[in-house]
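Pair request: fold both.
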Amino acid sequence: MRKKKKIEILKESFGELKNDAFNFDSIGSYFKNKSNRESFHILSDKTCNDLDFEELFMFLDRTNSKVGQQYLYNKLRSIPVKSENVEFKENLIQKLLNDEQLRINAQLQLDKLNKTDAYYIASLFQGEYEKAPKWFFIVRLLSFTSLLSLLMIPFNAKMFFVFLGTFIVNIGFHYWNKRNLYKYLGSIPQLLKLNSIAAKLFKVAEFKTINPELKSSIQVIKQVRNRMSFFRLEANLQSELEAVFWGILELVKIAFLFEPLLLFGILNRLDNKRKEIESVYCFIGEIDALISIASLRKGSKIYCIPSINKSEIRAEKVYHPLIPNCISNTIKVNQKSILLTGSNMSGKTSFIRTIGLNMICGLTINTCFAEAMTFPRLRIYSAIRINDDLINDRSYYFEEVLTIKEMIDNASNGIANLFLLDEIFKGTNTVERISAGKAVLSALSKGNNFVFVSTHDIELTDLLTDEYELYHFSEVVNENKVDFDYKLKPGKLKNRNAIRILEINEYPGDVIEEAIAISKSLDQLTIENKHMLS
């Protein structure tokens, strides 16, 4: 693609969603192989599934390279202990938003790392290298024999047969090594490209400050550049002459076993340069991630930079970025946690997810989808989307028990947590569900933890009024229609419309009449039980 056309595309796509396929096995490989021990919190697969993390990532990701894509994925799943260099990064994001030439020049370089092979660069500092076998000394001996016999031919013609015999043996070792070489055919050439791009971007004053010490890492990788460039299995042949050249070169490689000797020599060198390779990788990843954040903000009508405090959650006109024309809501959480009531489809679960994903984005990329947001640095746990585990013979209820047990264990560790729950213990009977739900929600809300939970059990609203602020979502049932406004309202839900909705959908009259009669008797029984308890 011509450079001029590429620049036009970059200008037009800035602030827009990507139109790419997402291979999450490759995108997530850097994160999965990184220890992240120094992080404040790592989002679990369970929480990611609950909050539709992959869909969120596809919305947030505006990176230009596979390296930046992997780096951004890791950033979003690893909440840091503290937000470092926030002011510098915000200034650079603003610079990238305003200085189109700076951004385009960087994007043109990063785009060179947009081929699938670039996903494998991380394996060069995270994975185990192929080790030379114990008998590898034979390869060195055969290489030396080939060279010596070739040099002796002018003095003794019979040495040609020694050379020929050694060449035939070398064919086996040469093609044995192709299997090893194929493992690095993608990663090593991409490493060279990564280092070259890093060297160019490091010259830009705005980027140099990201890692002022990077020059030494770039130089270390350059030291093995010539050796790494020597071997290649494939060539883009343009002519018969070029084909002949690569054919002759392959024969030379076989004769002196250059490929196995060079490959294991290079791998040994790279094995000792993991730290430098990772530094260059992270430098490129950080630049691409910052451009991605700038593009995200460019395309967002409403966003804010959050404020981190110690004691409260406050969200003004917060919304879910994946829901088209999402209704925004405002909430303040201080002394108490939040208990939500409302009918199905009224917005309870979406609101819980809205809080969770905005916390994640705020704590990782310093961007929230709201007019303003304030919250503490929290560890995030969830029990929203729970399924039976048929492989391990676990029921829905047992899976939920294990998930919530982990929350209880973390609730008393002295670290602030955010617990997100939807319809707690709905896999069991009413009496035990309410009893266990009350006890668990009381335990989770203690200390400096925050809980957002939804329920259909109105009884819980009476049992938890001392520990939870009550909010609800409601709908308006007209003659033949149900309308949802998705607005968060204070207090518990007072109107119940489930049976009315059945009526609207033309359930048989006798079914409706029986349902209403049973509902009234159950309400009366509940009132009598309350009087007895009081």
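--- second member of the pair ---
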Amino acid sequence: MDDKSTLLPIGRKGASKPIRNPKTKDSVLIVAAVFITILFVHTFVSISKRSPLFEERIQGISRSDPYKIFQDDPLLDRIGIPDLNPSKEHLHKGKKAMVASDVPLCSTMGKEILLKGGNAADAAVTVALCIGSINSHSSGIGGGGFIVSKNKEDYLSIDAREMAPHGAFKEMYGDNFVLSKVGGLAIAIPGELKGLFELFTRHGSKKLSWKQLLDPVIKLNREGFPCSKVFKRVIDIENEVVFSRVPEMKSNWDFIFNKHNEVINEGDWITRPNYADTLQLIANNGSAAIFYDPEGPIVKSLVDTIRQFGGIITKDDFSRYEVNVERPINVNISIGDRDLSVHSSNGVSCGLALVAGLNFFNEIHNKTEITTDEQQVLLTHKLIESFKWLSSIRSSFGDVQVENYKQGLIDKYTSKDWIHEILQNGNYSDKTTFPWKNYDPQYELTEPKGTSHFSIIDEDDNAIGMTTTVNLLFGSLVYDNNTGIILNNEMDDFSQPNVPNAFNLTPSIYNFIGPYKRPLSSTAPTIITDQKTGRPDLLIGAAGGSRIPTAILQAIIRVYYENKPLLESISFPRLHHQLIPEVAMVENITIFSEEHGNNGIIDKLHKLGHDWYESGSLTAMNGIHRNGDTLEGVSDYWRKRGEADGY
């Protein structure tokens, strides 16, 4: 019943406005006060009931950048090491369609959906669920993601980002910040499955059913797959850092330990029958609804497990979840003789920051061919300055419920007026970089993430870019063994007062925790089309936390401004700058050495004010590029052992 109808006096039908009885008003205020008090007490009790033993065990646990575990480890066959001379065996070509993902089998499964008559959106459902099954440390239906989709002339951005529960508040972690990374309080309401169903409903081919798209993944989980070198390494790390210290968490996991309670080995066969059963329920349901049904078996099991590890998510929180569907961030840009249309993710993603960084670079880029060390120095300087402005712009974003706030940012940063203002005010120079305050970030001044991206183009030039994640490796490390679902720790992507997150990202004043808010994401899946033909020309996206938009921007610049092949653009060592810390990160500093034809470039950049840090692997990136009549697919074999597949 409408609340206002209870305020209409009896016998006053059709009154122009309700007449309020003062006693009724007082009663309403009393009821509201009681309700708010009960809600506060419920939330406080839920948080205070956390197991002291559990909290004591996780104190001091350090969970940080997932990509660090792959750096310089000889046991990993150089996983995570970029390649200056990539083998062409990792370049996959097709005339009609292409899928590029982190998992070779998942790329092939996506291709098989296309061969059965499905389109890019259909294949995306299967690929996403496949990756979440095999690389469950990176993604899955216990997490969320962003999708950019092109279907004929229709473009969509789907924000399936996780959402904070109703009981969440800005300082909910007190001074125990590890609770935003491990355990039930780290978990936000998952969005991936609802995002995939929205994509299927709006852009699917209608030739294949929802169940037909899930069936191959159900079979995969029942029949199993081998433990990869990457997966083995991830389990070893988390077992050493967390599971060995928190036995109550370890006891829930049923597929990463063998019958002797030891970590499985590379090559061991993994089956996930409980997860297969959950996917079967979802397939038979014909939609994502059963996953969010507060009275359904999945929600009940998830909420019980979340509560077991100190979480405050309720059944009603699941029922409140919705995806946000919008038009992608779009700018048209001319590069040489090419007129391109760039479409990147909307919502609480970094699509707008990426587009702004590209616009900035395009405006300051000189059109001279790079033939000398001096020109290479200037190009690198301009690239880093674009990164720094991109990072500054990113700090203005968040799930802010202020009228026209978001649209104002879009209007501002898809134009070039802000760039002209920077140039006029002397905030950019070819001759020097500046301290971080010059870039005016909206920080609170105190300070592989386990993510996956894939790209798909089908025979009709429909295209999908999706970045999906549970945040850190295995998310919150909370695993519900009834449903087989691994739950995210996306609450760590909110800003916390005085504390950088796991990626050392300084807190933004627009990204603090609040009920039903979505944390800002660094993801920026992007589709670039040729304006003359309307055909997708480049699909690109990455995993790697705060380094995602700079990695994507660097790939775009290498492909379009430096005319490098996609194979070299993805394998090549990447740069990154996020304002704080005030250093430029580079995966492999030898790219600037004399051995590779660069004479003293580092010294020359240092004279411009750039300090350097050799970081090791920063991101994993997958893409598809149209080269004439051929689609070229490249997955990041060097950092994540991915392979593309097409026909």
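Observation on the second member. The chain has two domains: 3-49, 87-224+271-647.
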